[in-house]
RNA sequence: GCGGAAGUGGCGGAACUGGCAGACGCGCCGGAUUUAGGAUCCGGUGGGGCGACCCGUGGGGGUUCGAGUCCCCCCUUUCGCACCA
């Protein structure tokens, strides 16, 4: 039989009160010191999962803590409401994406409220509101004016069966998720944001981002992938004017060892060489047909010899040209010089295709080991004309300079990341505010006509082209420039656009004149803490850094970085695996809250592991935090009925040593919890500290007969309730009330640590002999070295171990340790 | 393959700048109360030894009076990237 939990009444009572009193409303401009606490906004998938519970519990602790410390706290929530799943739901259940999304939001909103999260719900919005996405369109137009938007061809996944573009998620092992046709690649004109314009800035600024996890910064650094090297243009004489082939290399110092030129299968020059060469043509066709390389070890390199020579501009030497699949078209220039002696990949390829291996760098020390047959370390350049004898570093510089002076190359920087392709051939996204006119070309929609709203009456079939392309009435529009009949752009924006600036909109969610009031942004930004999963370490967290810089350049804000401190919280797993429906290991938050109460669930997810670590949900372990709460509820004041009438310690109280010890513990706990929730953001150790104080207070309970003793206990109990409040907000409010308080905890200041009371009067001195623990000595604070040594010698354990030894050195650490370094005396 | 992170009791995890290893909780053992417990309370709980003590933070070396913490090598797990020239 299940005994009724205490929580439903209590939690409901306080949630209703918070709602009635609009307790979490935040002023538009901070009133005093500000703290912007943000959690990544959820996608309204239908129900919240434990990952949400954890993320939002952590954020709520930080928000409530700062609020009670006297900060104006901005703690908003919204919905990342555009995206593919809504369209999939439309396909599966015939419900309109807007309806599906709206219903999901309503449900998930109830779930979040049930957790007692301190959000300012007045600031809530969904990114599918036209009043929000109109500003996506506005930004698009502003960026276009600044040359940050352009249109270019890019390959998309095309399903010949459904005759439609597929998102990457809709391609399963190279086949369409719905009809299983083989997906092919198709080139379409698409819209791009010129994020590479900010590449250097995004990279350099990371130096100063000390509040971000190293891991996230590293992921971003790798993703941006800056690579400094040189470009050298080789010539293929047989191609005439088109025969100039730029090559990017980070090791131009090895160019005298280049024994081939290798082109990517997609390289235009490769296509030229296929003309009249069947072997080359067939190879290219085959190589291009391979859709996506499966993950795992790189496939074996294949290639084809074109039979045509290229000229190495450094040596004037003719070298063979190959087309090979290990050269990528979308990095560098799609062509590489092949230096088998000093590059592993080139070496592997050269061995297979009989390309000569010519060594032009020798190691500086004999030990240096070749990798995969190639010597890839730095060394000294040899057999390289005038450059021979130079160390790698100098040779690189000298040779790049030479290439520039001779007009066949020069220094060059390459980036691994590319401009941000924002076009999506989908319905449920922000329409791109452009119009195609036969006579004017591509024309922007005037600001006055924003937002370009998505048409409601649309049929989502997943077949026969994008849904918007079939909305003829919506597409037809007068050209804003010449008035002639024209057609709207039917691409919508990547949903990462929506999440790149939503946290600015929270400040001013109803503004119809601008995305937000810059004055508010100045007052609230940068965000003090941004919590979310590591899975967003690169795309989202770089896009929003980019977007902030664009806004800065538009004069909308005056900071470079949107986020001061970022916390990547760990995943919630179960039985060692990520929770998922297919594995059947999902724990439903509603059921858990129903059974144990929101406070217990919150306390459990916070206590189980530090926030940045993954946590394994174990039902059995929930018992600890739940038990702790029940005990609080039972004891206060049931087992100490005098508590409500008892005051706090007064100046003239005559405390016993036990009282003083409890008070010391109380104030030490305040200090520790404040640090754990503030600087460290480790609610797990904060909770442990509160439990310790509670245990100490309980132990004092039987002895609390006198006034002073009761006042010391009251102080401890009250502190437990107060410090636990950010983690378990409902029960602590209830207990606070039971203790006789009129003002809710929410509006009561965070307790202050009285350093005087917290200070230990006596300290534990560790006594060691040769570094081994031999005794523990309780001693007054502040003893000098000689006193420590005397105390140490007097200790029984120390004395025993010093017997027959000669002390030749004593190490002392004030208030901490005395260590006798001793050895056997020498004979004679 | 490259790069990162992490290895602490039966379990989750504590341990600020090198200075009492294992806080707090789960579990387990013993006891109390109870007709009963998935309730509550008390005590115990790293391993070994009757004991004084000895051994213990993945393994091996090192620095130090002293190492979970710093340095080197190795092993394992895990997460990124995956032919980026």
Report on the structure:
With 828 residues, the protein is α+β, with helices and mostly antiparallel strands. The chain is built from 26 helices and 32 strands. The structure holds one RNA strand of 85 nucleotides.
What is shown here, in short?
This protein is globular.
Please report which band the strand proportion falls in: under 5%, 5-15%, 15-25%, 25-35%, 35-45% or over 45%: 15-25%
Global structural class = alpha+beta
Mean pLDDT: 92
Distance between the termini: 81 Å
Largest sheet: 4 strands, parallel
Q: Please give the order of strands in the largest beta sheet.
A: 2-1-24-25
- Over all CA atoms, what is the radius of gyration? 34 Å
Helix content: 25-40%
Question: What is this structure's SSE topology?
Answer:
Elements lengths: L6 H14 L13 E6 L10 H19 L3 E3 L9 H10 L3 H18 L15 H16 L3 E11 L4 E3 L4 E2 L2 E2 L7 E10 L5 H6 L9 H11 L1 E10 L8 E6 L10 E4 L4 H7 L3 H12 L13 E9 L6 E7 L10 E4 L5 H10 L7 E3 L15 E3 L10 H14 L3 E7 L4 E2 L1 E2 L9 E4 L3 E4 L27 H4 E3 L6 E4 L3 E2 L1 H4 L3 H4 L12 H7 L4 E5 L5 H15 L12 E4 L2 E3 L2 E2 L10 H8 L1 H10 L7 E3 L5 H13 L21 H21 L5 H18 L6 H18 L4 H10 L16 H4 L3 E8 L2 E9 L4 H10 L1 H7 L3 E8 L3 E7 L5
Parallel strand pairs: 1-2, 1-24, 10-12, 24-25, 26-28, 29-32
Antiparallel strand pairs: 3-4, 3-7, 5-6, 7-17, 8-9, 8-16, 10-13, 11-12, 14-15, 18-23, 19-20, 19-22, 21-22, 26-27, 29-30, 31-32
Helix pairs in contact: 1-23, 3-4, 8-9, 17-18, 18-19, 20-21, 20-22, 21-22, 22-23
This protein binds one RNA strand of 85 nucleotides through α7, β9, β13, α10 and α19.
């Amino acid at each position: 039989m299940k005994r009724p939990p205490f929580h439903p009444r209590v939690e409901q009572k306080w949630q209703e009160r918070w709602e009635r009193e609009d307790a979490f409303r935040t002023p538009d401009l901070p009133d005093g010191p500000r703290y912007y606490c943000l959690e990544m906004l959820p996608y309204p998938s239908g129900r919240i999962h434990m990952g949400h519970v954890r993320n939002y519990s952590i954020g709520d602790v930080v928000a409530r803590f700062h609020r009670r410390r006297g900060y104006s706290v901005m703690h908003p929530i919204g919905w990342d409401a555009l995206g593919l799943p809504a369209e999939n739901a439309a396909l599966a259940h015939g419900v309109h994406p807007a309806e599906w999304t709206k219903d999901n939001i309503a449900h998930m909103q109830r779930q979040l409220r049930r957790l007692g999260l301190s959000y300012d719900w007045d600031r809530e919005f969904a990114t599918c509101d036209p009043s929000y996405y109109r500003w996506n369109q506005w930004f698009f137009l502003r960026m276009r004016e600044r040359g940050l938007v352009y249109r270019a061809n890019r390959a998309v996944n095309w399903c010949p069966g459904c005759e439609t573009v597929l998102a990457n998620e809709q391609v399963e092992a190279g086949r369409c998720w719905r009809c299983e046709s083989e997906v092919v690649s198709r080139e379409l004109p698409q819209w791009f944001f010129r994020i590479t314009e900010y590449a250097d800035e995004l990279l350099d600024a990371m130096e100063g981002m000390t509040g971000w996890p190293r891991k996230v910064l590293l992921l971003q650094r790798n993703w941006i992938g800056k690579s400094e090297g040189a470009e050298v243009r080789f010539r293929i004489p047989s191609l005439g004017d088109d025969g100039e082939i730029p090559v990017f290399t980070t090791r131009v110092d090895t160019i005298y060892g280049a024994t081939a030129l290798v082109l990517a299968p997609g390289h235009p020059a490769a296509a030229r060489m296929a003309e009249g060469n069947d072997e080359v043509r067939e190879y290219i066709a085959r190589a291009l047909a391979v859709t996506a390389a499966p993950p795992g070890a790189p496939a074996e390199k294949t290639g084809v010899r074109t039979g045509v020579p290229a000229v190495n501009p450094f040596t004037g030497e003719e070298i063979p040209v190959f087309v090979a699949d290990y050269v990528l078209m979308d990095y560098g220039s799609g062509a590489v010089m092949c230096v088998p002696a000093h590059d592993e990949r080139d070496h592997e390829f050269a061995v297979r295709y009989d390309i000569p291996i010519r060594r032009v760098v020798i190691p500086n020390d004999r030990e240096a080991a070749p990798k995969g047959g190639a010597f890839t370390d730095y060394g000294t350049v040899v057999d390289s004309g005038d450059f021979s004898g130079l160390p790698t570093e100098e040779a690189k510089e000298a040779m790049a300079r030479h290439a520039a002076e001779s007009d066949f190359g020069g220094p060059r920087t390459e980036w691994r990341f590319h401009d941000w392709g924002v076009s999506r051939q989908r319905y449920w996204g922000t329409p791109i505010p452009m119009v195609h006119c036969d006579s004017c070309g591509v024309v922007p929609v005037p600001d006055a006509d924003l937002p370009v709203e998505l048409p409601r009456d649309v049929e989502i079939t997943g077949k026969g082209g994008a849904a918007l392309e079939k909305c003829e009435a919506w597409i037809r529009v007068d050209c804003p420039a010449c008035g002639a009949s024209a057609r709207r752009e039917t691409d919508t924006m990547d949903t990462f656009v929506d999440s790149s600036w939503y946290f600015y909109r929270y400040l001013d969610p109803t503004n119809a004149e601008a995305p937000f009031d810059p004055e508010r942004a100045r007052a609230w930004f940068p965000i003090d803490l941004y919590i979310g999963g590591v899975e967003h370490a690169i795309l989202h967290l770089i896009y929003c850094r980019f977007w902030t810089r664009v806004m800065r350049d538009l004069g909308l804000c005056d900071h470079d970085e949107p986020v001061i401190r970022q916390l990547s919280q760990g995943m919630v797993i179960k039985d060692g695996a990520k929770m998922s429906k297919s594995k059947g290991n999902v724990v439903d938050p509603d059921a858990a809250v129903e059974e144990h109460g929101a406070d217990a669930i919150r306390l459990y997810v916070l206590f189980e592991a530090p926030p940045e670590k993954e946590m394994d949900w174990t039902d059995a372990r929930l018992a600890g935090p739940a038990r702790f709460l029940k005990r609080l509820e039972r004891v206060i004041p049931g087992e100490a009925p005098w508590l409500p009438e008892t005051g706090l310690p007064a100046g003239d109280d005559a405390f016993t040593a036990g009282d003083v010890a409890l008070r010391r513990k109380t104030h030490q706990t305040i200090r520790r919890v404040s640090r754990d929730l503030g600087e460290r953001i480790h609610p797990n150790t904060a909770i442990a500290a509160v439990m310790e104080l509670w245990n100490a207070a309980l132990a004092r309970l039987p002895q609390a007969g006198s006034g002073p003793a009761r006042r010391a206990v009251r102080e401890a109990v009250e502190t437990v309730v107060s410090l636990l409040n950010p983690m378990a907000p409902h029960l602590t409010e209830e207990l606070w009330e039971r203790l006789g308080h009129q003002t809710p905890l929410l509006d009561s200041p965070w307790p202050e640590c009285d350093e005087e009371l917290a200070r230990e009067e006596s300290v534990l001195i560790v006594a060691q002999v040769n570094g081994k623990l031999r005794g523990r000595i309780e001693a007054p604070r502040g003893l000098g070295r000689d006193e420590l040594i005397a105390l140490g010698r007097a200790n029984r354990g120390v004395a025993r171990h010093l017997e027959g030894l000669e002390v030749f050195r004593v190490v002392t650490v004030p208030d901490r340790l005395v260590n006798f370094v001793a050895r056997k005396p020498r004979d004679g």
